[in-house]
Structure formats: C-alpha cells, structure tokens
Design goal:
Keywords: Cell membrane, Membrane, Transmembrane, Transmembrane helix, Transport. With 325 residues, the chain is an all-alpha fold. It is built from 15 helices and no strands.
Length: 325
C-alpha cells in the first residue's frame, strides 16, 4: 500500500506540470511566430499587388485584410480564433487556411509515418545488437557506418539515392509529384526515396544513443543477477537491457519523430513532394501570413506532443520509477 500511495502523488503532480509547460511553450511559440511575421519586410498587400501598385490600392487592400490595425490587437484576435480551431483565410487564395493545411498535412503525415516505421525498428534493433556486442567487430562496423551516415548532408543523400535508384537503375521515380485527387498511398513508390532520405538524417544519432544506453545497461548489477539466476539471454536482452537502454534515447527519438511528422523541408523540396514544407515555402514567398503562422504553430504542436509522449515513456521504461520503493 505504501508503494502505491507513494507513487500516485508523484505522478499526479508531475503530469499537470508537464501539460502546463507544454501549453506555455505553445503560447511562447505563437508570440514568436507572430512577431517574426511582423518583422519581415513588406506585407501581404504589397506582395499581392506588386511593386507597381499605387499607394491607394495598397492602403485599400491593407484595410480590407485588417493589416492597418495595431499588431497586439491583431495577435489577440488571431490567437482567439486559433484556440477555436479557426486559422483564418489565406491572403493569396482566399481559401480557409485549415483546408490548405488539410490538403498537405495528410501527405506529410503519410511520409512521416512511413519514415518513422523505418527509423524506429532500425535504430532500436541495430542499437540493441551493437550495444550487446560493445567493443566487438559488429559494434565497430555499425557505429562506424552510423558515423559515416551522419557526416553526409541530407540533400547529398537524397541526390545520391535519386542518381542510383531513379536515374541509374530506373526502379523508382525521381520526383514524388502527385496527380489531382491522388494521394501518396495511390502510388507508394513516390514515398520510397523521400522516406530513405528522411531516415538517413535521424538514424545515426538515435542508433548511437540506443547503443550507448544498451551497452551501459548490459553491465548493470540487475542484468548480472538475471543471468546468474539462469534467465535466458534473449529474455535478459528484451526484458532488462532494452527498456533501461532506451531511456536515454527516447527524448531524441521523440524529437526525430516530430521532425519526420512535421514535414521535412529538404526532402520534400528535393523530390517535389506536396507536403507542408512546400506549402510553407510558397506561403513565405507570397507573404501569406495566416498560412505561415498556422504551419509553424502546427509544427510546434507536433513537437510538443512528441516530447510529452517521450516524458510518458521514460518513466515507464525506467525500472526505478516503475517499481518505486
């Protein structure tokens, strides 16, 4: 009873603080995003009408878009609508921003989930395998390969993959363009090269963190005791070593997943994939402030959610917190 009674208050105080901190982070991001768009030169009126437009035409458009109102009032008005799920209308097209994001977010989500489905098993599996063989030839090969992969920039990896598998072998499309009304799952081949490019960015660091955690956990007294008690090696690895070894790697893995799900600019731009990154680039060029603000805030929300999930996973993986005394 004392164990249970000692455990619940700690977590009941811990989680509200984490959630409150996440909300404060999102609020701070909203302020920074709004301030950054305000500080950028020009505005949507001048971008839409062009440099040859008269001052009267620009002033009339600013009045219609509400750009002549004080910035604090526009921020509060925008934040109030965002809380209700209304991101406003695009300055460039007039369409609701939610619709524009919905069209692209699904594509980025599919690409991010595909990359996550490749990244997590590879990082965990190879990290576990190398960590259990710390200092041996297999560990040196895996660790050296991870270092080499980390040294290659993302756009170089993507270009090499394109040159080999698209231009050279002709197995995969060089660009990931989608037809009207077509989704990425209608032609899964367009996902392969962007997925591999995204995985190459995050695999090395996550693999090395898992490997380091596993190598340290494998030398712990709890693992030695399990082996002395005759626990089979595969159960030692999966039940004792892997959960303890994953603890240090989970926060980095969460950040990597947030990066993959949020839309990766280089990979999507390199392969012409119609995701959030391409939408953000187009909106920035057009000074389409509502779209830029919404995409940036959505990316921050994904990152915060991933880190909250990591905060939950770490205590569950930590034997000390799972079995408090």
């Amino acid at each position: 009873m004392s164990r249970i009674g000692g455990k619940r208050p700690r977590f009941s105080r811990w989680w509200p603080a984490r959630i409150g901190g996440a909300l404060l982070v999102l609020f701070a991001v909203s302020v920074l995003v709004f301030a950054a768009t305000e500080a950028a030169p020009g505005d949507a009126a001048t971008a839409r009408l062009g440099p040859q437009a008269s001052e009267d035409a620009v002033a009339a458009l600013r009045d219609r878009l509400g750009l002549d109102r004080p910035a604090p009032l526009r921020y509060l008005d925008w934040l109030g609508h965002v809380v209700r799920g209304d991101f406003g209308a695009s300055y460039a097209s007039g369409r609701p921003v939610g619709e524009l994001i919905g069209d692209r977010f699904g594509n980025s989500l599919v690409l991010g989930l595909a990359a996550t489905a490749v990244l997590v098993p590879l990082a965990v599996g190879l990290g576990l395998w190398a960590g259990l063989r710390a200092g041996r030839r297999g560990d040196r090969i895996v660790s050296g390969g991870a270092l080499g992969l980390a040294a290659v920039p993302e756009f170089v990896t993507g270009a090499l993959l394109m040159a080999v598998f698209a231009a050279g072998l002709g197995w995969l499309p060089a660009v990931s363009l989608l037809g009207a009304g077509q989704g990425p799952l209608d032609d899964p081949a367009v996902l392969v090269l962007p997925t591999l490019t995204l995985v190459s960015v995050s695999l090395a660091q996550n693999l090395r963190l898992v490997r380091a955690g596993v190598a340290e956990a494998a030398r712990s007294p709890a693992v030695d005791a399990a082996r002395l008690n005759g626990v089979p090696e595969h159960r030692v690895a999966l039940r004792y070593v892997l959960p303890a070894g994953l603890g240090p790697a989970v926060p980095m893995l969460a950040r990597s997943v947030a990066y993959l799900l949020g839309g990766a600019l280089v990979a999507e731009s390199l392969f012409g994939y119609p995701g959030l990154a391409a939408l953000l680039v187009d909106a920035t060029a057009a000074r389409d402030v509502p779209v830029v603000q919404a995409v940036a805030l959505l990316g921050a929300a994904v990152a915060v959610a991933a880190n909250l999930a990591a905060d939950l996973a770490v205590p569950l993986l930590d034997p000390v917190q799972r079995h408090p005394r």
